[in-house]
């Protein structure tokens, strides 16, 4: 049902009423939630497919709401984006995640791997409003310097839809960050208005294939159309010099298929669910 302002509560629809009240209460609590320390981060491991080792983790924000309990980002990120709170919240996420990455890099078993390959990376999601904020580059550089983290240990995830229609001026901040060595990942690739031709002009280093693509690979045998499709995207991405990360890998069969198709990195419940930072170390810091 539509939320048409004043007559919201006249609609005898318990579900939509509950949603309206919910939204109202969330909006009221949101501005102070950051100061009250109600947000926290979980991290989901990113696994290199060639040797099944940890290459990094994506920071995912959660809200411990005083009334509604634990809330996932889908419940409040759109609101935060709408109200503008996403800017301070996003900065807080970036600070936390970057500091966490420093701890991982300094860890004798996790950080020690940097010698044989690349540093452990932390992925941070950027919403459209953050992306278009004039201080993005300056703030990101400041946070990296404050924590003493090398730019190559940070990956910023932006959705393709946030970049659709962006002109060269609007892409400049991302390009600057990429030139500094920050990894830029195109998140949820393949959803919305994907435009393969568009890929060439975006300053991305990684393509994150959306979960919807991995779902078709779950059956035995996998849907041949999906196999062809994913294989084609991977080849194209590699030809453009992009790394491919797949999300939503839930089964061993999917993982095997995606490895065979040439995907570089994977993320999903098959490997690990999002978890507090300490668990990342406990599970993955093995010699
Ligand atoms: P996303 O960037 O696509 O993040 C991946 C989502 O898929 C996460 O949900 C994760 O828990 C879930 N997921 C991971 N593996 C699997 C799997 O194997 N199967 C299934 N079914 N799901 C899996 P989550 O944590 O609820 O995050 C939802 C979205 O919220 C994220 O989607 C991202 O767009 C947004 N988000 C999260 N944290 C932040 C943040 O700090 N800032 C901004 N701007 N957005 C955020
Ligand atoms: Ca993401
Ligand atoms: Ca994603
Ligand atoms: Ca997704």
TrEMBL record:
Start and end residues of each EAL domain: 23-287
Signal peptide positions on this chain: none
Domain of life: Bacteria
Name of the protein this chain belongs to: EAL domain-containing protein
């Amino acid at each position: 049902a539509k939320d048409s302002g004043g007559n919201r509560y006249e609609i005898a629809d318990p579900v939509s009423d509950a949603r309206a009240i919910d939204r109202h209460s969330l909006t009221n609590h949101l501005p102070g939630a950051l100061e009250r320390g109600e947000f926290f981060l979980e991290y989901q491991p990113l696994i290199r497919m060639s040797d099944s080792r940890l290459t990094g983790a994506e920071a995912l924000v959660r809200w411990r709401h005083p009334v509604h309990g634990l809330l996932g980002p889908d419940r409040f990120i759109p609101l935060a984006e709408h109200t503008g709170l996403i800017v301070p919240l996003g900065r807080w996420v970036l600070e936390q995640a970057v500091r966490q990455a420093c701890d991982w890099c300094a860890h004798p078993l996790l950080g020690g791997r940097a010698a044989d390959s690349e540093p452990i990376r932390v992925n941070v999601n950027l919403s459209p409003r953050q992306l278009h904020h004039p201080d993005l580059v300056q703030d990101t550089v400041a946070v990296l310097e404050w924590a003493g983290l090398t730019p190559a240990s940070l990956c910023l995830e932006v959705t393709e839809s946030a970049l659709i229609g962006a002109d060269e001026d609007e892409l400049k901040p991302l390009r600057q960050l990429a030139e500094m060595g920050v990894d830029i990942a195109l998140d949820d690739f393949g959803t919305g208005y994907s435009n393969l031709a568009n890929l060439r002009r975006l300053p991305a280093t990684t393509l994150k294939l959306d979960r919807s693509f991995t779902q078709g690979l779950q059956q035995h045998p996998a849907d041949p159309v999906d196999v062809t499709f994913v294989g084609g995207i991977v080849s194209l991405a590699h030809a453009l010099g992009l790394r491919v990360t797949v999300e939503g890998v839930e089964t061993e069969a999917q993982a095997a298929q995606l490895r065979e198709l040439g995907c570089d990195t994977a993320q999903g419940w098959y490997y690990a669910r999002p978890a507090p930072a300490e668990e990342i170390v406990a599970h993955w810091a093995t010699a």
